[in-house]
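ok posting inputs for the PBG job
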Amino acid sequence: MPYPQERLRRLRRTESLRRLVRETTLTRSDLVYPLFVVEGRGIRQEISSLPGLYRFSPDRLGPEADEIQGLGVPAVLLFGIPRHKDPRGTSAWNKNGPVQKAIRFLKARSPELIVMTDVCLCEYTSHGHCGIVQGAEVLNDPTLEALCRMALSHAEAGADLVAPSDMMDGRIRAVRQALDQAGFSHVPIMSYAAKFASAFYGPFREAAESAPAFGDRRSYQMDPPNRREAVREVLLDIEEGADIVMVKPALAYLDILREVRNVCRHPLAAYNVSGEYAMVKAAAARGWIDGPRVMMEILLAIKRAGADLVITYFAKEAARALRTD
Ligand code: PBG
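and the output
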């Protein structure tokens, strides 16, 4: 029945009516908060490219963990910034590296907080690439062994979940096997399955000191125009044993999120990346947009596109806004 019988505005008249027929919700349990950990002691240093975020040494994570838990955010995703970098990224599996120490610290202090770890060599290699390099090539198969060692060292330290983000072929199967053989068959893998070679990672690379020294990541991260290929990446990672699949970045890739949602039944994560956060912060600081409203609109749009969980630098701020729900 068309207008004038049908009037869609009827259900928009009051906030209670709008709530009643709302199709998508964002809750605090959907959120994952990224944390950057550095070596040393007593360090809490603001990240200039990500206002409101800090680099912490493991010993200073206590109050931060309390705050995150107090806000009802269930999980953190750890990124490490080591002092020592070399061509093979060997400090990535150092038992006493910042991430390994942070995992032990957090699991002892806040056992309920889910500790996820990013598994990728780019913060640990002197050249900043996500794999082992030969000449100008980023080698696939030799990188897998390094990734397995890194994932294992996180599991040994007590990580609840590991998240490979390097985009090498076959890494999910390799990491799954390594974990299973070492007695960690209970540790889930969240695969950065469809990760695009994106300019939206800029502020993160400053935060994590992980910009490539030469070339770019286009020989391993995905080409932004490709949607069908994203589906192939996701389905392959599921076959290889991924428990959760991720699309990254989120905002310019909402169509990919929807496409992936429609082709698989696995939990789907979206990474609302550093550039997406920084743009909102910068425009809000100039008074050009209403920061808190834009934040909520973005996070909801990511969920509407099909994401079950959202990794976001806004997690604490969004959780604060959602506290009454
Ligand atoms: C590591 C990694 C990156 C991000 C997450 N894991 C950087 C990259 O691929 O260059 C980006 C996160 C962000 O921009 O917020 N490979």
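notes: The mean pLDDT is 97. Residues 141-157 form the longest helix (17 residues).
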